[in-house]
Amino acid sequence: MMNSRNESKDVWASGDAYELYVGRWSRLVAREFIRWLAIPEKSQWLDVGCGTGALSQTILEMTNPRKVKGIDRSEGYVEFLHSHVNDPRVEFEVGNAQTLPFGRETFEAAVSGLVLNFVPQPHQMIAEMARVVRKGGTVALYVWDYAGKMQMLRHFWNAVSVLDPAARDLDEGKRFPLCNPDPLKNLFQNAGLFQVEVHPIDISTDFKNFDDYWMPFLGGQGPAPGYAMSLSEEQRARLRQRIYNSLPFALDGSIPLTARAWAVRGVK
Q: Which one, of 59, 8, 52, lies nearest residue 176 by Cα?
Protein backbone atom coordinates (compact mmCIF):
# COMPACT_ATOMS: atom_id res chain seq x y z
CA MET A 1 0.00 0.00 0.00
CA MET A 2 1.20 3.50 -0.76
CA ASN A 3 1.49 6.15 1.90
CA SER A 4 -1.29 8.55 0.99
CA ARG A 5 -1.67 11.89 2.66
CA ASN A 6 -4.50 12.37 5.13
CA GLU A 7 -5.52 15.71 3.71
CA SER A 8 -5.10 17.66 0.53
CA LYS A 9 -2.80 20.68 0.40
CA ASP A 10 -2.99 21.88 -3.17
CA VAL A 11 0.01 23.85 -4.40
CA TRP A 12 -0.33 26.67 -6.93
CA ALA A 13 2.92 28.58 -7.31
CA SER A 14 4.84 27.87 -10.53
CA GLY A 15 3.42 29.36 -13.70
CA ASP A 16 5.62 27.30 -15.97
CA ALA A 17 4.69 24.01 -14.26
CA TYR A 18 0.99 24.87 -14.36
CA GLU A 19 1.11 25.70 -18.07
CA LEU A 20 2.62 22.29 -18.81
CA TYR A 21 0.05 20.55 -16.60
CA VAL A 22 -3.38 22.00 -17.50
CA GLY A 23 -2.76 25.61 -18.54
CA ARG A 24 -2.28 24.57 -22.17
CA TRP A 25 -5.61 22.74 -22.16
CA SER A 26 -7.41 25.52 -20.32
CA ARG A 27 -6.51 27.84 -23.20
CA LEU A 28 -8.41 25.61 -25.63
CA VAL A 29 -11.46 25.57 -23.36
CA ALA A 30 -11.22 29.34 -22.93
CA ARG A 31 -11.67 29.96 -26.66
CA GLU A 32 -14.90 27.94 -26.79
CA PHE A 33 -16.06 29.54 -23.54
CA ILE A 34 -15.59 33.07 -24.86
CA ARG A 35 -17.39 32.24 -28.12
CA TRP A 36 -20.32 30.88 -26.09
CA LEU A 37 -20.55 34.00 -23.91
CA ALA A 38 -20.60 36.40 -26.88
CA ILE A 39 -19.88 39.49 -24.74
CA PRO A 40 -19.89 42.73 -26.79
CA GLU A 41 -16.66 44.46 -27.76
CA LYS A 42 -15.28 47.28 -25.62
CA SER A 43 -16.58 45.66 -22.44
CA GLN A 44 -14.77 45.75 -19.12
CA TRP A 45 -13.90 42.25 -17.82
CA LEU A 46 -12.83 40.74 -14.52
CA ASP A 47 -10.95 37.41 -14.51
CA VAL A 48 -11.20 35.86 -11.03
CA GLY A 49 -8.38 33.44 -10.25
CA CYS A 50 -6.58 34.37 -13.45
CA GLY A 51 -3.76 31.86 -12.89
CA THR A 52 -1.29 31.94 -15.78
CA GLY A 53 -3.57 34.05 -17.93
CA ALA A 54 -5.30 31.49 -20.17
CA LEU A 55 -8.66 33.23 -19.92
CA SER A 56 -7.42 36.82 -19.74
CA GLN A 57 -5.29 36.41 -22.85
CA THR A 58 -8.16 34.79 -24.71
CA ILE A 59 -10.38 37.73 -23.82
CA LEU A 60 -7.73 40.10 -25.18
CA GLU A 61 -7.37 38.10 -28.39
CA MET A 62 -11.04 37.48 -29.14
CA THR A 63 -13.23 40.27 -27.73
CA ASN A 64 -11.44 43.61 -28.20
CA PRO A 65 -12.14 44.58 -24.56
CA ARG A 66 -11.88 48.05 -23.12
CA LYS A 67 -10.16 46.67 -20.01
CA VAL A 68 -9.36 43.32 -18.40
CA LYS A 69 -8.58 43.03 -14.71
CA GLY A 70 -7.07 39.75 -13.47
CA ILE A 71 -6.82 38.76 -9.84
CA ASP A 72 -5.19 35.68 -8.30
CA ARG A 73 -4.14 34.60 -4.81
CA SER A 74 -0.78 33.26 -6.03
CA GLU A 75 2.07 35.77 -6.09
CA GLY A 76 3.98 33.33 -8.30
CA TYR A 77 1.28 33.33 -10.95
CA VAL A 78 0.95 37.11 -10.90
CA GLU A 79 4.72 37.43 -11.32
CA PHE A 80 4.53 34.98 -14.22
CA LEU A 81 1.84 37.14 -15.85
CA HIS A 82 3.80 40.35 -15.41
CA SER A 83 6.71 38.78 -17.30
CA HIS A 84 4.65 37.05 -20.02
CA VAL A 85 1.72 39.36 -20.83
CA ASN A 86 2.40 42.82 -22.22
CA ASP A 87 -0.84 44.57 -23.14
CA PRO A 88 -1.93 48.02 -21.89
CA ARG A 89 -5.54 46.84 -21.67
CA VAL A 90 -4.86 44.31 -18.90
CA GLU A 91 -3.79 44.56 -15.26
CA PHE A 92 -3.02 41.74 -12.82
CA GLU A 93 -2.84 41.80 -9.06
CA VAL A 94 -2.79 39.50 -6.06
CA GLY A 95 -6.15 39.19 -4.34
CA ASN A 96 -8.86 37.01 -2.83
CA ALA A 97 -11.76 35.69 -4.93
CA GLN A 98 -14.04 35.82 -1.88
CA THR A 99 -13.41 39.51 -1.13
CA LEU A 100 -12.88 41.21 -4.47
CA PRO A 101 -11.22 44.65 -4.15
CA PHE A 102 -13.63 46.41 -6.53
CA GLY A 103 -16.72 48.55 -6.15
CA ARG A 104 -20.24 47.52 -7.05
CA GLU A 105 -21.21 47.33 -10.73
CA THR A 106 -17.70 47.91 -12.08
CA PHE A 107 -17.60 45.33 -14.89
CA GLU A 108 -19.76 44.14 -17.76
CA ALA A 109 -18.52 40.58 -17.29
CA ALA A 110 -16.93 38.67 -14.40
CA VAL A 111 -15.49 35.30 -15.42
CA SER A 112 -13.33 32.55 -14.00
CA GLY A 113 -11.59 29.44 -15.32
CA LEU A 114 -10.85 26.27 -13.30
CA VAL A 115 -10.95 28.04 -9.93
CA LEU A 116 -14.35 27.68 -8.27
CA ASN A 117 -13.80 24.27 -6.66
CA PHE A 118 -10.56 25.39 -4.99
CA VAL A 119 -12.21 28.32 -3.20
CA PRO A 120 -13.22 27.58 0.42
CA GLN A 121 -16.63 29.26 0.03
CA PRO A 122 -17.77 29.00 -3.62
CA HIS A 123 -21.07 30.74 -2.92
CA GLN A 124 -19.16 33.76 -1.60
CA MET A 125 -17.04 33.90 -4.76
CA ILE A 126 -20.15 33.92 -6.96
CA ALA A 127 -21.81 36.53 -4.74
CA GLU A 128 -18.74 38.75 -5.08
CA MET A 129 -18.61 38.28 -8.86
CA ALA A 130 -22.28 39.24 -9.07
CA ARG A 131 -21.71 42.27 -6.82
CA VAL A 132 -19.06 43.79 -9.07
CA VAL A 133 -21.02 43.20 -12.31
CA ARG A 134 -23.37 45.82 -13.66
CA LYS A 135 -27.11 45.25 -14.07
CA GLY A 136 -27.61 43.08 -17.15
CA GLY A 137 -23.99 41.95 -17.03
CA THR A 138 -22.70 38.37 -17.16
CA VAL A 139 -21.20 36.14 -14.49
CA ALA A 140 -19.67 32.96 -15.93
CA LEU A 141 -17.05 30.30 -15.30
CA TYR A 142 -15.86 26.86 -16.28
CA VAL A 143 -14.56 23.87 -14.30
CA TRP A 144 -13.33 20.42 -15.34
CA ASP A 145 -15.74 17.50 -15.42
CA TYR A 146 -13.53 15.73 -12.89
CA ALA A 147 -15.80 12.74 -12.28
CA GLY A 148 -16.56 12.14 -15.94
CA LYS A 149 -14.83 13.10 -19.15
CA MET A 150 -11.68 14.82 -17.92
CA GLN A 151 -9.86 11.71 -19.14
CA MET A 152 -6.31 12.81 -18.35
CA LEU A 153 -7.16 12.91 -14.66
CA ARG A 154 -9.52 9.93 -14.69
CA HIS A 155 -6.71 7.65 -15.87
CA PHE A 156 -4.49 9.02 -13.11
CA TRP A 157 -6.96 8.65 -10.25
CA ASN A 158 -8.33 5.32 -11.43
CA ALA A 159 -4.80 3.93 -11.18
CA VAL A 160 -4.29 5.52 -7.75
CA SER A 161 -7.55 4.00 -6.45
CA VAL A 162 -6.25 0.51 -7.26
CA LEU A 163 -2.76 0.97 -5.83
CA ASP A 164 -3.69 3.14 -2.86
CA PRO A 165 -7.39 2.86 -1.89
CA ALA A 166 -6.80 5.17 1.07
CA ALA A 167 -6.07 8.00 -1.38
CA ARG A 168 -9.47 7.87 -3.07
CA ASP A 169 -10.65 10.90 -1.14
CA LEU A 170 -7.95 12.97 -2.89
CA ASP A 171 -9.55 12.27 -6.30
CA GLU A 172 -10.97 15.56 -7.64
CA GLY A 173 -13.98 13.64 -8.95
CA LYS A 174 -14.90 12.82 -5.35
CA ARG A 175 -13.58 15.99 -3.74
CA PHE A 176 -15.49 18.35 -6.02
CA PRO A 177 -19.15 17.26 -6.45
CA LEU A 178 -19.85 20.92 -7.25
CA CYS A 179 -18.33 20.39 -10.71
CA ASN A 180 -21.51 19.02 -12.23
CA PRO A 181 -24.43 20.70 -14.05
CA ASP A 182 -27.11 20.71 -11.33
CA PRO A 183 -24.91 21.98 -8.46
CA LEU A 184 -23.44 24.67 -10.72
CA LYS A 185 -26.87 25.82 -11.86
CA ASN A 186 -28.17 25.90 -8.29
CA LEU A 187 -25.14 27.90 -7.13
CA PHE A 188 -25.77 30.61 -9.72
CA GLN A 189 -29.51 30.72 -9.13
CA ASN A 190 -29.00 30.98 -5.37
CA ALA A 191 -26.78 34.02 -6.01
CA GLY A 192 -29.77 35.77 -7.58
CA LEU A 193 -28.60 35.41 -11.18
CA PHE A 194 -31.07 34.93 -14.02
CA GLN A 195 -31.11 33.01 -17.30
CA VAL A 196 -28.67 30.49 -15.84
CA GLU A 197 -27.31 27.97 -18.35
CA VAL A 198 -24.82 25.10 -18.09
CA HIS A 199 -22.95 24.03 -21.22
CA PRO A 200 -20.41 21.22 -21.87
CA ILE A 201 -17.18 22.12 -23.65
CA ASP A 202 -15.20 19.17 -25.00
CA ILE A 203 -11.65 19.54 -26.28
CA SER A 204 -9.06 17.11 -27.59
CA THR A 205 -6.07 16.66 -25.30
CA ASP A 206 -3.75 14.72 -27.56
CA PHE A 207 -0.39 13.87 -25.97
CA LYS A 208 2.59 13.30 -28.25
CA ASN A 209 3.81 10.33 -26.21
CA PHE A 210 3.76 9.00 -22.67
CA ASP A 211 6.37 11.48 -21.43
CA ASP A 212 4.19 14.33 -22.66
CA TYR A 213 1.37 12.90 -20.53
CA TRP A 214 3.41 11.91 -17.45
CA MET A 215 5.98 14.67 -16.99
CA PRO A 216 3.42 17.38 -16.03
CA PHE A 217 2.41 15.25 -13.04
CA LEU A 218 5.93 15.73 -11.69
CA GLY A 219 5.55 19.52 -11.47
CA GLY A 220 3.71 19.51 -8.14
CA GLN A 221 0.99 21.96 -9.24
CA GLY A 222 -2.50 20.90 -8.14
CA PRO A 223 -3.97 17.80 -6.44
CA ALA A 224 -2.83 15.01 -8.78
CA PRO A 225 0.78 16.23 -9.22
CA GLY A 226 0.92 17.00 -5.51
CA TYR A 227 -0.05 13.42 -4.75
CA ALA A 228 2.42 12.00 -7.28
CA MET A 229 5.29 13.95 -5.75
CA SER A 230 4.34 12.85 -2.22
CA LEU A 231 5.19 9.25 -3.15
CA SER A 232 8.51 7.46 -2.89
CA GLU A 233 10.34 6.81 -6.15
CA GLU A 234 9.31 3.16 -6.02
CA GLN A 235 5.64 4.01 -5.42
CA ARG A 236 5.70 6.60 -8.19
CA ALA A 237 7.21 4.05 -10.59
CA ARG A 238 4.39 1.61 -9.82
CA LEU A 239 1.81 4.32 -10.44
CA ARG A 240 3.53 5.34 -13.67
CA GLN A 241 3.44 1.78 -14.98
CA ARG A 242 -0.20 1.29 -13.98
CA ILE A 243 -1.24 4.43 -15.85
CA TYR A 244 0.92 3.50 -18.85
CA ASN A 245 -0.88 0.17 -19.13
CA SER A 246 -4.30 1.87 -19.04
CA LEU A 247 -3.82 4.54 -21.70
CA PRO A 248 -5.20 4.23 -25.27
CA PHE A 249 -2.05 4.58 -27.36
CA ALA A 250 -2.36 5.23 -31.08
CA LEU A 251 -0.12 3.42 -33.57
CA ASP A 252 2.29 6.37 -33.67
CA GLY A 253 2.70 6.37 -29.88
CA SER A 254 0.49 9.38 -29.29
CA ILE A 255 -2.32 9.32 -26.71
CA PRO A 256 -5.65 10.76 -27.92
CA LEU A 257 -7.79 11.83 -24.96
CA THR A 258 -10.76 14.13 -24.39
CA ALA A 259 -11.30 16.71 -21.68
CA ARG A 260 -14.73 18.06 -20.82
CA ALA A 261 -15.33 21.27 -18.94
CA TRP A 262 -18.67 22.42 -17.59
CA ALA A 263 -19.35 26.08 -18.35
CA VAL A 264 -22.05 28.03 -16.51
CA ARG A 265 -23.33 31.58 -17.00
CA GLY A 266 -25.97 33.84 -15.54
CA VAL A 267 -27.21 37.38 -15.97
CA LYS A 268 -27.44 39.89 -13.12
A: 8
